[in-house]
Amino acid sequence: MAERDRLHQDRLNVECDLADALLRLGHGEDLVAELAARATKNPLNERVTGQYMEALYRAGRAADALEHYRHVRTRLVEELGTDPSPPLQELQQQILTMDPRLAGLRGTRQAAKPQQLPAAPQQFTGRNRELAALTAAVDAASERDTTVVIVAVAGTAGVGKTALALHWAHQVRGQYPDGQLYLNLRGYDPEEPLSPGQALDRFLRALGVSGDQIPQEVDERATRFRTEVSGRRMLIVLDNAGSVDQIRPLLPGTGTCLVLITSRDSLSGLVAVNGAHRLDLDLLPLTDAIALLSQLIGPRAEAEPDAVVALVGQCSRLPLALRVAAERANTHPTIPLADLVAELTDYQRRLDRLEIDGDGHATVHAVFSWSYQRLPAGVRRTFRLFALHPGTDIDPHAVAALARITVETARQHLETLTRAHLTHSAGPNRYGVHDLLRAYATHQAIVEDTEHERQEAVNRLLDHFVHTAAAAVTLVYRNDYHLERQRSGSSEPAISTQVFDNRTLATAWLDNEHANLVAVAADAARHGRSGHVIALSTTLRSHLFTTSRIADARTLHTLALALARETGDHSGQIHALHGLGFVHYNSGAYELSLDSFGQALTIARMASDRHGERVALNGLGHVHYICAQYELALARFNQTIIVARDIGHRSGELHALRLLGHIHCIQGRLEPALACFNQALTIARDVDDYSGELHALRGLGNVRHLQGRYGQAIECYRQSLAIARDTNNVNGQFEAILGLGRTYLATGQARQALAEQQTALSIVHGVGQLADQARAHDGLAHAHHALSHNDEARHHWDQALNIIIHLGLNNVEDLHINDLRDHLSNHQADRR
């Protein structure tokens, strides 16, 4: 049944094509009988209706033609709830006014079949997905045979929109036997864009309409154009369109035509109102970019593959830039490609090198400028300042800080830039630019903005990041030691500083901005902005530690320490050394950790900095604790508690209390341990210190475990784990899961214990915390041993022992090297 219907439809289409051709040749009266029968069979087919009306008119039966129109219109309204299409309404008007163009006398002009497509681009590579998407869009839209098919290819300057459109147009031109029309609308050229009237004049002349027959008014020209192409299968390419208003008058009214548009604008109105299908063209994928450049350069590319990859990166995978770079290489065939790479290394001069003299269309800088100049002045300024952000992407709040505008205005500017494809979406509410556009924006900032204006913009951006990071860290971790630096004096929060409604949003901001925070700190360090670098180091210390971002913490705190020493900033030195101390601590470099904390303590006491003294004492206590130097650890934590109470630092007091609790626990003093953890938990909940609360709960879980109160222990661990996950505290998650695994093993649930210990190991394996890896391996070994997986147990005890030996320790918290050796020795005896 479906196949039969398809064949009937194909036959009808062919019959209609023939009728169109005969009508264009001047036939009319001789077609009336045939078309009357066809109209009876297809009463709602508007193409058939129009052909029948035109034949009736030429037969001198205008009244019958108008009566048939009224009859069809009534059925369309009653059965489909719609009026006749615009072309059919126009035909009715032509009959009413006895338009001479309907006379159709034989021997008049023959219908022209323009063939205006420019040549297809040579060395076209890749874009298979996009070509398939174009074909699929046209196939889907063609099923609605009464609606003009519109496809728009949108993308940034130089991305290859015209090349893609022409390549595909040549592939499908055979499907449009009545010809192809092409116009460069010059929407983004240095010349004036073509007006709709100018474009219609050119199209009508190409269709054979003489100059004296072309109407003067744009609307009348549009009507004549729709009449000329009505019923004809034509491909119409509108290249380099500037706006929807430039395009709409050029749209046919018939579903037999395909309109293919390219533009740097997103043409959202054309999609929303006219049902256009938009294909957003991105930069070339890396493999396609390499293939294109290699094809353009030829055999030399095979000899220098590394240089080809480097060139692709320097050209940002932008096809125009790749073609210009290839031409530069081919112009100097004896010069190694590596020399061209070196020439393009200078970020600021790269755009000057990516040009071909005398050809504005082959100059990357020029094609960017045509897009830039069309923007409103405020949006141009935002685009320029965007480039001063050293990170990978940006959100509207940061843009608002850079440009000193409201967040809502920043959003509007970013949307305008994205529609113009001068920025791209980098995620929800985030925006980015590729490197060549960034270089262009930087150039414009240097040309159009003063040095003072640029420096002020960067300062505002850094203030935004410092204050927003402080707001996020305060909400997520609920402790205030990162604010000690700010108390000594800093700029007022910027208007763009974000306010977070809950910890989830604050945590998300810290995760989303992590790479940017590191990037802006490094950039600030290069330009000697010590205050901002030290503030970021101090503010982010807790976050970097709890999320185990060790490499970034090392970079940030090292930069801050160097600048603090250079400027004589004692407080900055103390906090940077504290951060580095925990970097070394997490990496198992305990001597270096002790040295960092020791330096911090010396500086704090010399400067009478009680906050700094507490921070340094706390760090020293941690190292002594992990190294099982419990008496030294007890002394340091007791000193920490005294200082914390003196200065009213309750979070500092609670963290020292919970570590004292762990030491009492290890040494078998369970009641003092219980008292310490309960005190710590009370303080944590009083001051909303989530980190302190999860650690206090974990400590209580350890005590209940040792007391044999396993149900209570599991409940404490679960509460601790929930907080750790909620605050993205990696260390807290590890400790809670490790405790759960041990408790499940103690209650005979070996398989559940095994699963928990595997999770614990996976957490710390990715962040390089060797001491904790040893503890997780020990937990896995015990679980495997309980399940009689003896080889697996031996493997994990071996791993734990090797780590402790590597660290140069005898103990890691409650894990003793002699216990590991005993386990391995007993296992070997069992095997014998």
TrEMBL record:
GO molecular function, one term: ADP binding
Domain AAA+ ATPase: residue ranges: 147-285
Domain Bacterial transcriptional activator: 2-96
Family annotation (InterPro entries): AAA+_ATPase, BTAD, NB-ARC, P-loop_NTPase, TPR-like_helical_dom_sf, TPR_rpt
Record carries keyword Cytoplasm: no
TPR repeat start-end pairs: 694-727
The name this protein goes by in its record: Uncharacterized protein
Key words, A-Z: TPR repeat
